[in-house]
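quick one before i forget lol
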Amino acid sequence: MKILVLGATGATGRLIVSTAIAKGYEVVALVRSKVKAADLVGAELIEGDARDSAALTRAIAGCDAVVSSLGTAMSSFKEVTLLSTATRALVGVMEQQNIRRLVGITGLGAGDSRGHGGFFFDRLLLPLMLRKVYDDKNRQEDAIRASKLDWTIVRPMVLNDKQARGSIKALTDLSGVHGGTIARADVAEFVVQQLGVDAWLRKAPLITW
């Protein structure tokens, strides 16, 4: 299977690329700069902006699926539009090219997972530092849900760079969930697994340890 990865130069995106390649996937990464992405060993690098339909069309040629791990900086006051703009462009190109499988990463606090991050995340971090980011994550999720694609939205708990445990919980019933963490490496493993299974098709699991 050949896959396109967006957000491949981010901390989680890099692990998705290496995990997918280790599992035998052919990986294309759409990146802003090939120079800055030169360490993505084994991936085919296509230079371009993820919001640009023409760049997406070039990058997606011959692919069977897409993983979006796009991220953006914290923002409390400045409007954030990158995630939703890129996602709308991606959905349009995928539907036009008849490429149906999309695995997109948003995060704890998006959609109905809001209010399940614990006191610090819910009362301080999200409203004070991440409010505009999560407004855009919600628009991103809406664009995916409104599409005709075979999508899975993955919402990781608070990310860390610890060693993978290899065992995680994927939840859609969030009763009693109030915070948690997960290693980026475990997120990458879960995301790549979804490319070959339909267990979470058109669902948005929260993943945590």
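fyi Strands lie at 2-6, 26-31, 44-47, 65-68, 101-105, 150-156, 158-160, 169-171, 181-183, 206-208.
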